Amino acid sequence: MKRCGWVKLSDKIYVAYHDEEWGKPLHSERALFELFCLETQAAGLSWLTVLKKREGYRNAFAHFVLEKVARFGEMDVARILEEGLVIKSRPKIEAIIYNARLFETIIKEFGSIDSYFWRYVEGKPIVNAIADYKTAPCTSNISDAITKDLKKRGFKFVGSTTIYAFMQACGMVNDHEDSCGCK
């Protein structure tokens, strides 16, 4: 099968992620929360670095059960830093917890994380024509709008590039190359 040019074929984790997850519409609350958290961790790093630590993040953050993560405190931050299962950045670890609390507010307002994000694309993926991944957009008017709203709400480690990557990953945007078997 032909794959997008960004996939490192020598890395089984990356190939599996591309083939089985990236760009597929995601609506599970827990999975969306996890993906959002992981995307914020990737700021300044490669996605593969974060992806390889995904199990560590799941273990450190109660398998991304929002209600549990929102109740984490300083002892949990210290534990996570000490365990070393995730990228050792106190601000990024604290951001996951802080953002979890803000998602509780979003759920009260919109009913779900899914409803909040997917309303920006009217519930269906945007399919872009991408001849070569190097020409794919890194942001959009929609990622700009989501970022603006999230920042207004106080979310941390969110920028338009991070949000666009989240949109691609959860299938709000399908940016597989036109020749990719996953398109």
TrEMBL record:
The organism's place on the tree of life at top rank: Bacteria
Residues involved in Zn(2+) binding: C4, H18, H176, C180
GO MF annotation list: DNA-3-methyladenine glycosylase activity; metal ion binding
Keyword field contains Ribonucleoprotein: no
Keywords: Glycosidase, Hydrolase, Metal-binding, Zinc
BP GO annotations: base-excision repair
InterPro entries: Adenine_glyco, DNA-3mA_glycosylase, DNA_glycosylase
EC number annotated for this UniProt entry: 3.2.2.20
Name of the protein: 3-methyladenine DNA glycosylase
Organism: Sulfurospirillum barnesii (strain ATCC 700032 / DSM 10660 / SES-3)
Taxonomic lineage: Bacteria, Pseudomonadati, Campylobacterota, Epsilonproteobacteria, Campylobacterales
